[in-house]
Design brief:
Elements (H helix, E strand, L loop, with lengths): L3 E4 L9 H6 L7 E6 L11 H10 L4 E6 L3 H10 L4 E5 L6 H10 L3 E6 L17 E5 L15 H14 L4 E5 L7 H7 L3 E4 L1 H4 L4 H13 L4
Parallel strand pairs: 1-8, 2-3, 3-4, 4-5, 5-6, 6-7, 7-8
The structure holds D-xylitol-5-phosphate and zinc ion.
Zinc ion (ZN) binds next to strand 2.
Family: Belongs to the ribulose-phosphate 3-epimerase family.
GO cellular component, one term: cytoplasm
Pathway: Carbohydrate degradation
Amino acid sequence: MSALIAPSILSADFMNLESELRRIADADFAHVDVMDNHFVPNLTLGLPVFERLTKVSPVPVDAHLMIEDPDRWAPAYAEAGAASVTFHAEAARAPVRLARELRRLGSRAGVALRPATPVEPFLDLLAEVDMILVMTVEPGFGGQSFIEGTLPKIRRARRAIGESGLDVWVQVDGGISRDTIDRAADAGANVFVAGSAVYGADDASAEIATLRDLASVHLH
Ligand code: DX5
Ligand code: ZN
């Protein structure tokens, strides 16, 4: 199994999203951060733009919804063509029902945890989701430093998944770069979001390959 790389277009040029997506045609997913200015103090894009992104993206789109009331809004992102829809555990009222709805609509379902949210209360969700996203920065902005204190949580999530026998991915998001990706992989992550590291590189394609190689040698 090789590591999956999902560049975040949060660090792309929003005036040229189609060509910016072409720069990451070698990636496994395009990670799209949807922020509503309520769940996080930042505002990005919503459904009409998202739907167009899924149409022009050369790779499957991974939606990360940093929004209030995902129970109400998330299914539309699956209908709009997302390959994967991740909602925040802190915001969902009925996470089991929501995850089932996302899967019924043909998307993978993910549940995200802020750095301070423990994983243990959500382990019952493992059978209902395809991915756990352990945030490795406080959600809201790109270009922040990786929080080392999240490594034990990545480890606990990976251990619980191993014990469950389920095939659930562990995604990390925030501060992932050549300097940090090996530690996240070693702790048990297998899907790596990288915004500034990929879009800040002169050759995004080469950066994706480097990150994938660095992570792959540490994969569990
Ligand atoms: C932050 C977003 C991330 C962000 C990561 O809230 O969820 O996806 O784009 O950016 P970097 O990789 O620059 O930390
Ligand atoms: Zn994200």
